[in-house]
Amino acid sequence: MTMQNVGRPTRPEETQSLDAGFTSLTGGRGLLQDEALIFERDGWGKTGVDLPKVDAPADDLGELVRRSPIGLPGLSEPEAMRHYVRLSQKNHAIDLALYPLGSCTMKHNPRLNEKMARLAGFADLHPLAPLSTAQGALTLMDRLSHWLKTLTGMPAVALSPKAGAHGELCGLLAIRAAHEAKGDPRRRVLVPTSAHGTNPATAAFVGYSVTEIAQTDDGRVDLADLAAKLGPDVAAIMVTNPNTCGLFERDIIEIARLTHEAGAYFYCDGANFNAIVGRVRPGDLGVDAMHINLHKTFSTPHGGGGPGSGPVVLSAALAPFAPAPWVVHGADGLTLVEETVDAAAQAFGRMSAFHGQMGMFVRAYAYMRSHGADGLRQVAEDAVLNANYVKARLSGSMTPAFPEGPCMHEALFDDSWLEGTGVTTLDFAKAMIDEGFHPMTMYFPLVVHGAMLIEPTETESKQELDRFCEALLALAEAAKAGDVERFKGAPFLAPMRRLDETLAARKPRLTWKPDQGVAPAPLAAE
Ligand SMILES: *Cc1c(COP(=O)(O)O)cnc(C)c1O
Fold first, then answer.
1. Is 244 in the pocket of ligand 1 (CB under 6 A)?
2. Does the pLDDT at position 99 exceed 80?
């Protein structure tokens, strides 16, 4: 098999030394064959299906007939299966091991959810099916809405946004519509320095200018700075709670009061809802709009495993501006409000062509029902307990960014403990891969130097947490003992070596081009 290295500078070097004292002759290792890109394999004329010859007369497509090859590699079914299974074995997944990415809530995706989502009545439903044939699906959307509204203490919910960032857009569009309805279009949105990048990006996308709110030494919103920056041109504040440092915003009620006093709305980034679900209702805190990542808090797959889903709950002040569609109870059962007229005349429009990620609604609802109200409360409690366990176990070797008091659902460390070792946060993260652990979120939030943000979630057992902590403690010891070589070139044992991240960012090579490999054969007809 001829293999080209263009675009793959991370392939392990042939000369890499192995414990056995030799390298494999073909690049394979441990039952995992080395893999050419799918486009580099020959067999362009091949197909996995066997269609009978057509004896129909010549087509009537005229100019529309394809003249160039379609550019899809030819693979038989077993070849296609093996290619993708091998690729999956080169990557990480929540089904392989703990996935400690802070802020991402990489929890186990229960198989019961998958079973429910595959019920034909949900899985085979067409978005344009007559509503009389989709009553079950509408009932599920209605009940999911009920649970989301109850858990957040908010009167309205828009189900259609398709991710957290899409939900932020939905929330800010509702806020913009509410200000415009009052004839008071405002210009600015306030965002704390520790915010997720999507917050300022969303505000800018909606046309607002963004002003940063400073942070206190203990990692919370600086109230005095907030008060100073609020004014008659501020449309909204966007605050994450618990925030991205893994800390509860103690002054959240006061933050809401000051915001409302200035005539602005309170957008809460609800990506971290997992830490408080069942314990705190954001509506009680004065929140006006909040997205909920079903793919975080409510266990639907993400990180390559499935589409996101980001429903947005809205306060009474913003509810009239919620986007269509939504489910209502009619004389003949459930129906959808689709048109922004009459009672829905103030709706700002819609977020997507149809109703949202139905498959994710089913999974999230299955998750809620299988836990029940008490189970969801325990989710938050266990998530916080697990994070504090990790924080306590690692604090002797690594430096917690905010040592005072407990954290919420994630434990944040800075890199001051690595000072003088010659090992960077990045090196440390890459060395974790050699130990079989996916790195935590690194260099985020930006307000903490060399941040390492660990979110274990409630779905890890104490044994798993111990194995993880012991691996990190062993690595920390190696770093402090001056074993720099182990870190600098890591990962050594992964299928792919370390990327040149600067080159990858500056000159990303995102698509494969035929001149880089085997050219597709011309169409058989030509
Ligand atoms: C994940 C996350 C988002 C964005 O959610 P997506 O579903 O990835 O678009 C926004 N804010 C915070 C704090 C997050 O963790």
1. yes
2. yes
Indicate whether 13 pLDDT > 60.
no
For residue 163, give the ligand 1 atom closest to its CA.
7
Which atom of ligand 1 sits closest to the CA of residue 167?
9
Whether pLDDT at 15 is above 80: no
How does pLDDT run across 398-411, given as a tens digit for each residue?
999 999 999 999 99
Mutate to test the pocket of ligand 1, among 103, 105, 351 (most ligand atoms within 8 A of CB): 103
Q: In CATH, what number is assigned to the domain containing residue 190?
A: 3.40.640.10
Residue 35 maps to a domain: no
Cβ(106) to ligand 1 under 6 A? no
Per-residue confidence (pLDDT) for residue 53, from 0 to 100: 84
For residue 196 and ligand 1, the question of a CB distance below 6 A is answered with yes
Q: Is 105 in the pocket of ligand 1 (CB under 6 A)?
A: no
pLDDT (average), residues 286-313 = 94
Q: Is the CB of 165 under 6 A from ligand 1?
A: yes
Sheet holding 156-158, edge to edge: 156-158, 312-314, 289-291, 265-269, 234-240, 188-192, 209-213
Task: For residue 326, give its domain range.
Answer: 113-367
Round the average pLDDT of the chain to a whole number and report it.
Answer: 91
Which residues touch 106 (CB under 8 Å, ≥6 apart)? 94, 99, 100, 302, 303, 455, 457
Number of domains in the chain: 1
Give domain status of residue 374, yes or no: no
CA–CA dist 202, 166 (Å, integer): 8
Distance between the two ends of the chain, CA-based, in angstroms? 28
Percent of the chain with pLDDT over 90: 76
